[in-house]
Design a protein that fits this description.
The chain is α+β, with helices and mostly antiparallel strands. It is 46% helix and 13% strand. The chain has 2 domains: 75 residues, no CATH class; 71 residues, no CATH class.
Length: 147
């Protein structure tokens, strides 16, 4: 049994699926023989296999999600990265924190992108984790929060 097949069997029990295009494509290739050219089709296909929400992290190209039948996108924040270690984890943490605050999928993506960007402005995997104040200053454009 391949890892993709094992993961595919878990999709009906998954609430939120996070990944990049390469990870999501591994699962999609198992569910349909047609290749999906657009992210919206890829995410919708994965959502139809069970997850309530599918989130695509595209790094410096932004992010997208499929939640409750709705496709959303958010642009990345232009930064000069120092170190990208931990950016994906920061993205997921930002998304989940915003979700717990009851925010919309588009707002979740925007804040997740900001958290990922902030993680890249420092060396190390957790040292760039923003405080709430750092995050809001970054989102408001009042402070680049370079440490």
């Amino acid at each position: 049994m391949t890892n993709a097949f094992a993961a595919l069997r878990l999709l009906p029990f998954t609430d939120i699926l996070f990944g990049g295009r390469s990870e999501h494509s591994l699962l999609y290739d198992q569910t349909d023989s047609n290749r999906v050219a657009h992210d919206s089709g890829l995410l919708a296909s994965l959502a139809s296999a069970g997850p309530h929400e599918v989130v695509l992290n595209r790094g410096d190209a932004g992010a997208a999600s499929h939640c409750d039948g709705e496709y959303s996108e958010a642009a990345a924040f232009p930064i000069e990265p120092i170190d990208t270690v931990g950016a994906g984890d920061a993205f997921v943490a930002g998304y989940l924190a915003t979700m717990l605050d009851g925010r919309s999928p588009a707002e979740r993506l925007r804040e997740a992108n900001a958290c990922g960007a902030l993680a890249c402005l420092n060396t190390g995997d957790w040292e760039g984790t923003p405080t709430g104040r750092d995050l809001w200053a970054f989102l408001d454009g009042t402070d680049p929060v370079v440490r």
